[in-house]
Specification:
- The chain contains eleven helices and no strands.
- The chain has about 230 residues and is an all-alpha fold.
- The chain folds into two domains: about 60 residues; about 150 residues, no CATH class.
- The protein is globular and about 85 Å long.
Length: about 230
C-alpha cells in the first residue's frame, strides 16, 4: 500500500472520529448543559459567584456520575399510597406546620430512594436529581433546609408553607406516570379490561393527581382556614 493511500485513510479515520465526538462535545458545552439542567444551571453559576467555567465543570461531573442512572418505576399501588400520604402531610399542616414540613422532607426522601436515586448522602441525591429533574430539584434543597430550621424553632409559618409548595413540584414529577412505567400500565389496563374494570387513561390519572394534590390545599390557603396564616 502506497504512502499516499495510507495518509488518505488516516485522514478519513480522523474525520470519522471527529464526526462521532462532535455531538458529545457540543452536548457537554455550556449550551448543552443549560438545556440539560434548566434553572439548575444558573443556580450553580450563582453558587460559583458567576464563574461559568467552574459551574460547567461541576455540572459535567454530575452528568458523568449520574447521567446513566435508570430510575425504577412505581407500581400503581405505591403511587396511590404516596399520593395519599402527601395529602395527609398537607392536612397535617393545618395544625402542625413544622411537623408537616419534616414529614414532607422524609416522604420525599423515601420516594426519591424508591425511584432509584442515591439512598444515603443528601448531596449525592441532589446531584443525581439535578441531572434528571433540574427544573424541580431545588424544591428538595428548600424543604431540607427549612425542615432543619423548623426543628430548631427558627422557621416562620409562611416559610414552612412555601417549603411544602416548593417541594410538591418535585413530588408530583417523581410520583407521576413516567415512560418506563408504560409497559406495566398497559398490561394492567389489558387485565382490567378483560375483567370489565378498565382503569382511567394516563391523562385522566394525572388530572386526578393534580386535583388531589392542589385542590384542598389551595382552597384552605385562599380561605385562610389554616392556623398561623398558612
Amino acid at each position: 500500500m502506497s504512502t499516499g493511500v495510507i495518509i488518505i485513510l488516516a485522514v478519513a479515520a480522523l474525520v470519522i472520529v471527529a464526526l462521532v465526538l462532535a455531538p458529545r462535545v457540543m452536548q457537554s458545552g455550556g449550551g448543552g448543559l443549560k438545556r440539560r439542567f434548566g434553572p439548575e444551571y444558573e443556580r450553580t453559576v450563582a453558587r460559583h459567584d458567576g464563574d461559568r467555567k467552574a459551574a460547567e465543570r461541576e455540572l459535567s461531573e454530575r452528568l458523568r456520575r449520574h447521567g446513566d442512572l435508570r430510575t425504577r418505576p412505581l407500581s400503581a399501588e405505591a403511587r396511590e399510597q404516596y399520593v395519599a400520604r402527601w395529602a395527609g402531610v398537607q392536612e397535617q399542616f393545618v395544625d402542625s406546620p413544622a411537623q408537616a414540613v419534616d414529614a414532607a422532607e422524609r416522604l420525599l426522601g423515601e420516594l426519591i430512594r424508591e425511584r432509584g436515586f442515591p439512598a444515603d448522602e443528601f448531596d449525592e441525591q441532589v446531584a443525581a436529581l439535578s441531572v434528571h429533574h433540574g427544573e424541580h430539584v431545588d424544591g428538595y434543597r428548600h424543604v431540607h433546609a427549612v425542615a432543619a430550621r423548623a426543628r430548631e424553632g427558627r422557621a416562620e409559618t409562611e416559610e414552612l408553607r412555601e417549603a411544602v409548595v416548593h417541594a410538591r413540584a418535585l413530588f408530583e414529577e417523581l410520583v407521576s406516570t413516567h415512560p418506563q412505567d408504560n409497559a406495566r400500565h398497559r398490561a394492567h389496563d389489558r387485565g382490567a379490561e378483560r375483567r370489565g374494570t378498565r382503569t382511567p387513561s394516563a391523562g385522566t390519572g394525572k388530572q386526578r393527581l393534580a386535583d388531589r394534590l392542589h385542590g384542598p390545599w389551595a382552597a384552605r390557603h385562599h380561605t385562610g382556614t389554616t392556623k398561623g396564616g398558612a
